[in-house]
Amino acid sequence: MHFLAFVRDNARWLAGGFLLTFFSSFGQTFFIALSAGSIRDEFGLSHGEFGTIYMVATLASALTLSQFGRIVDHLSVSRVALIIIPCLALASVGMAYAGNLVVLVVVIFGLRLFGQGMMTHNAITAIGRWYVGQRGRALSVVTVGHQVGEAALPILYVSVVAYVGWRNTWLMAAGLLMLVGLPVIYGLMRVERTPHSSDSAEERAAARDWTRPEVVRDPLFWLVLTGLLAPAFIGTTIFFHQVYLVELRGWSVEAFAGSYASMALMTFCFALIGGFLIDRFTAIALLPTFLLPLAGACFILGMVEAQWGVFAFMALVGVSYGLSSTLFGAVWPEMYGTAHLGSIRAVVIALMVFTSAMGPGVTGFLIDFDISYPAQIVAMGVYCLAICLLMVMVGRKVTERNNSYATALPG
């Protein structure tokens, strides 16, 4: 199916999913970190102390998500949106009025649970169920919402915060969620998509439908996660400490904020490319290669002090982000089927949130103990290369297992 025709025929569902991922930005690390300097100054926190607060709140949201995320298996996308968008807006209002550390922890918990967690979970689970043969293409369009948010919102934040302050900027975010996000997303997603008969024409031999307890006992599940969670850990860590990195390198804050656009552009392009590659070769086949650009990005950021390094870093991160954004939604239906996809993805998203929580806290304390931050970034690049080698073996094992299930099917 021609890509433009596919987008046209599926515009309402793709647009709804896109907006869910776009508005998840208000709970993503890159957006919260834009206020990190102001929060640390106002509450008198060190890098490690704020990282710990962020980690605790995020870990709590991950534990909650592993159970709360099951609702996507029982409620429609639009009904889940009616719950999580007002909650995300309420957390944004809470950030604007946070007056002590207890409130700050609760607010960050809400932003992470309902923003990064549930907004993304609701969108990607729906797309994984609604599409089969065109799953990669559909996911590539929907996940671009993350990149549009990463490209537009930092520049918008820097522009607005200078006039109204960081607290009022969070109030404006809440207003945007309630006045634009909620009515538009609900209107688009209130009609569920029914998979068409043509959708399955391109479907390959699928894994049997695994239950969540079976999945968490599967060693291959955990091995795949060592790769798929790497972008969340590395990206969250680096973006959380972006202000410190800019100060360390002597870069311009405006230039760093502007470099997000290059990451977003590359992520957009490679999300679409990744979607076509997944539909052509399967998500499993892409596992050994998608972290290679991220490894290069870490080596550049850790070793290059000139400001051009951040633009090269962002571009390479965008390549891995684009590929991983589609992989993250497509690999689980290929491995475990769709019958229990919501419950399985709730665990995955919870682990992603958990992983993203660990990075800022651990790295913040290492910074406090004078461990070189650039050296930490280089170590992340080495990890990516090691995982690429591991994914070669993992991909082979998953493919062999799926083929054995397909052979065993009657007829």
CATH superfamily: MFS general substrate transporter like domains
Beta-strand percent range: under 5%
Shape: globular
Stretches with pLDDT under 50, minimum 5 residues: 200-205
The CATH topology: Growth Hormone, Chain: A
List the helices and strands and how they pair.
Layout: H1 3-9, H2 11-23, H3 29-32, H4 36-43, H5 47-68, H6 77-97, H7 101-130, H8 135-189, H9 212-216, H10 219-228, H11 230-240, H12 242-249, H13 253-281, H14 283-286, H15 292-303, H16 308-336, H17 341-368, H18 373-408
Helix pairs in contact: 2-7, 2-8, 5-7, 5-17, 6-7, 6-8, 7-8, 7-17, 8-13, 8-16, 10-18, 11-17, 13-16, 15-16, 15-18
Structural features:
single chain; 411 residues; mainly alpha; Growth Hormone, Chain: A; 18 helices; 81% helix; globular
Walk me through this protein's architecture:
The protein has 411 residues and is an all-alpha fold. The chain has a single domain, classed as Up-down Bundle (Growth Hormone, Chain: A). The chain is built from 18 helices and no strands. Helix 8 crosses helix 13 and helix 8 packs across helix 16. It is globular, with a radius of gyration of 20 Å. The relative contact order is 0.16. About 1% of the residues have low confidence.
